[in-house]
């Protein structure tokens, strides 16, 4: 068996038995204890197993638990966010969207247009550079470093609407701020008339699955106070959608407690 097959067999054994030790895994896979330990360490880093006590057995981790939830309760992304998106739309009157990552880009997979005279046109299906739009940056901020670099192997960023291009170092600084704050914003970066603010939806593994965005005319979302005022309802909506996506009960978070 190769390393991937060892890992899959290990995850299956942990799921079946509920826990497994290094010695037990070595016997089950017919490998040396050192190999079994390495396989378990890799599974632990990926979130498939966890070890509560040093030297103790390995038990199902958050990712394995999440897979079981998705298998037993088929909660699709649209099912998890649809009601939340409409609630946020009713609360704010603004255009609300859901974005997912596609390589270096972010695609809008769900959109509810704002009420006139606030309306921003339908954005369903539109694709934007992920490093320029709020939804893309919200997701990139919580990506694992190695996955982020796979998306941008050349570390070359997109050119904004005003013709500027940021350095990779400046971009990393921005992602660090977004990660700890819990939300991202973009003011005129893809269209000088439009601003947006977004919060990521993150699985228990820590991987981003989508982002909820609020899109507004730039004239009403450009100052710090305007952005921060919209962050509260957005974070509450993201918390509800994320909880539903994970199969739990919805709960409310303040902007401070929701920051990452």
Automatic annotation (TrEMBL):
Region Disordered, annotated ranges: 239-260
Biased composition (Basic and acidic residues): 246-260
Keyword Transcription assigned: yes
GO terms under biological process: negative regulation of DNA-templated transcription
Every IclR-ED domain range: 63-248
Residues annotated as domain HTH iclR-type: 1-62
Family annotation (SMART domains): HTH_ICLR
Top-level taxonomic group: Bacteria
PANTHER family: HELIX-TURN-HELIX TRANSCRIPTIONAL REGULATOR, ICLR FAMILY, HTH-TYPE TRANSCRIPTIONAL REGULATOR RV1719
Keyword DNA-binding assigned: yes
PROSITE patterns in alphabetical order: HTH_ICLR, ICLR_ED
Gene Ontology molecular function: any one: DNA binding
Protein name stated in the entry: IclR family transcriptional regulator
Pfam family, one: HTH_IclR
Keyword vocabulary terms for this entry: DNA-binding, Transcription, Transcription regulation
């Amino acid at each position: 068996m190769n390393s991937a097959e060892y890992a899959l067999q290990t995850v299956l054994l942990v799921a079946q038995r509920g826990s497994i030790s290094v010695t037990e895994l070595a016997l089950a896979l017919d490998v040396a204890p050192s190999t079994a330990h390495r396989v378990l360490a890799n599974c632990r880093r990926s979130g498939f197993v966890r070890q509560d006590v040093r030297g103790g057995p390995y038990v199902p981790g958050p990712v394995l638990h999440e897979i079981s939830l998705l298998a037993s309760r088929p909660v699709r992304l649209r099912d998890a966010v649809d009601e939340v998106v409409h609630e946020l739309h009713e609360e704010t009157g603004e255009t609300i969207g859901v974005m997912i990552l596609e390589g270096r880009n972010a695609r809008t997979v769900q959109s509810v247009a704002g009420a006139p005279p606030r309306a921003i046109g339908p954005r369903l299906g539109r694709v934007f550079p992920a490093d320029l739009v709020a939804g893309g940056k919200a997701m990139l901020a919580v990506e694992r470093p190695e996955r982020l670099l796979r998306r941008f192997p050349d570390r070359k960023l997109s050119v904004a609407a005003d013709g500027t291009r940021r350095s990779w170092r400046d971009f990393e600084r921005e992602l660090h701020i977004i990660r700890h704050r819990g939300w991202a914003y973009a003011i005129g970066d893809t269209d000088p008339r439009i601003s947006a603010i977004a919060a990521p939806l993150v699985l228990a593994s820590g991987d981003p699955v989508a982002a909820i965005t609020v899109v507004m005319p730039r004239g009403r979302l450009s100052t710090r106070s305007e952005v921060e005022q919209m962050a509260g309802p957005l974070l509450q909506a993201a918390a509800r959608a994320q909880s539903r996506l994970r199969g739990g009960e919805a709960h409310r978070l303040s902007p401070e407690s929701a920051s990452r």
